[in-house]
Design goal:
Elements lengths: L7 H11 L22 H15 L5 H6 L3 H41 L1
Length: about 110
Amino acid sequence: MTAKELTVEKFIDQIVEEFPEIKRENLEPDMRFRDHVEWDSINALVLIAMVNVEYDVTINAEELISAETINDVFNVVKAKVEQRENAKEEVEDLKEEVEDVKKEEEKENEG
């Protein structure tokens, strides 16, 4: 999922899938997610794993602990997705630059 496709509503839907004891209608972005599930280290690990699998980014325990609301967690995840996408774009740009340099070197060596 790209950062543009990632919305807080989709993020909440994913949380509900992972935590079936939570009712979707009970969740809003500004709510404290710890108030809606018996929060313990196992559930924290489940949320961290969900983020890793679904969004291909890693959040750590400190980031999760500092997040008060669902929206706080979402913002951390979205920022990391954006960072990942930017890094991929930078790598692609560098690859193109390397290819251009190689082509120039080949032309110089031919002449």
